[in-house]
Design goal:
Elements: H1 2-7, H2 13-19, H3 33-48, H4 56-67, H5 77-82, H6 87-105, H7 108-117, H8 124-127, H9 140-152, E1 179-185, E2 188-192, H10 205-208, H11 214-234, E3 237-239
Helix pairs in contact: 3-4, 3-6
Length: 240
């Protein structure tokens, strides 16, 4: 209920399961205690040296844990006692299995969204310490839109064409830089082109549902095709 109030929308069971995943899996890290309790108990006993093969609680925890992970990631009392495993590893295996189940049950659109939100550094914005002075914060409306897109597929956001930078008359849509750094390396300018794309657009949806980063890669290739010749003509480096 509290999370639903924060994002101002109802959260489906599927979206809530995703939110419970770690950040590297496209989740929010809102871990379920009941889901992780067996991993925590197993790790604590194995590292403390207090575990034993005749401990019924440890045996039940391992049985429960093995029911929540893929068979190759299962554990036994003997392996846990012989070689302690950190809770981080045990929890990661739980997330691996949960993420795999989510992907297997998802539509193409949801697969594309899940793969995109689990891409490397896709969740970095969630780890940033918010600072109004540095501009590193989201207002409530921005946060709601961001979370809805990641988990609810209810934020219908349409991208707009780039507007002119104000440095040239009118709308200059041919410029190769959103930000130009005049002295980037060895006196050579660098053109930074910032692109926001979506894996849910019809042209890339099928590929984005199969491969992490497909939408970003396609957008990057289009930008290079459009901007590299002009940057080369101007003697600029290109940074996307």
């Amino acid at each position: 209920m509290c999370f639903s109030n924060c994002v101002a929308t109802d959260i489906s069971d599927v979206a809530w399961k995703q939110a419970q995943l770690g950040l590297s899996y496209g989740g929010l890290g809102l871990c379920s205690i009941s889901h992780l309790s067996c991993a925590a108990y197993i790790a604590s006993l194995s590292f403390s040296g207090l575990g034993s093969a005749d401990n019924p609680h440890l045996v039940r925890s391992i049985v429960r844990y093995n029911s929540l992970v893929s068979p190759p990631d299962g554990s036994s009392v003997e392996s846990i006692l012989a070689s302690p495993i950190p809770q981080r590893i045990l929890s990661q295996r739980l997330d691996d299995h949960s993420f795999g189940l989510a992907i297997a049950a998802a539509t193409d659109a949801d697969k594309a969204r899940l793969l995109s939100t689990s891409a490397s550094h896709a969740a970095s914005w969630l780890s940033v310490v918010p600072s109004v002075g540095l501009g590193l914060h989201l207002d409530p409306n921005e946060l709601q839109i961001a979370v809805k897109w990641c988990f609810c597929h209810q934020a219908h956001i349409a991208a707009r064409l780039e507007a002119g930078s104000g440095l040239t008359p009118g709308l200059d849509r041919t410029r190769p830089a959103d930000v130009l750094v005049r002295d980037w390396a060895q006196g050579k300018p660098a053109a930074f082109d910032i692109k926001v794309t979506s894996p849910l657009t019809p042209a890339i949806l099928a590929e984005a549902s199969r491969r992490v980063g497909a939408a970003a890669e396609a957008a990057e290739n289009r930008k290079h095709t459009a901007n590299d010749p002009k940057c080369a003509e101007l003697g600029w480096s290109v940074c996307l």
